[in-house]
Amino acid sequence: MDGIDQKIIAILRRNARASVSDLALELKISRSTVRSRMERLKSLGDILGYTVVLRGDVFEQPVRGIMMIEIEGKGTQRIVNHLNKMTEVSALHTTNGKWDLILELGTDTLSHFDDILRRIRLIDGISASETNLLLSTKRTNEARRNVMLD
User: Fold this and answer.
1) Distance between CA atoms of 114 and 86, rounded to whole angstroms?
2) Angle 31-43/3-14 helices, nearest 10 degrees?
């Protein structure tokens, strides 16, 4: 992946709906070059898909946090399946070290956040957890707002 490919990806991260024409104008290269590079990036598996950012992703979850979870025994897949059904869990990461899973959580109120923490801690097989509230996000939310405003 060269510098032009990286610039294409950077623009698409800001606006996944950017047209080939818009990309070509911004990068000062031909549309056919942009199209062929995007097709190559997709065929190589560098670009797996495109996404949309919803208003709720930015504005409707004022209470957000990270929860680290330790799992006892071999129940990881069962617990992951259970957590994936919870709408408050926006992302779930497996990891190494002390914590087995890291969850990104979002709710509308502190009491709702407290309730989801309680529900998660009651899942059979979760032996320990630690949670941190996210006070502000310096990059992601700003990038999402820019996408919303474009």
Assistant:
1) 14
2) 90
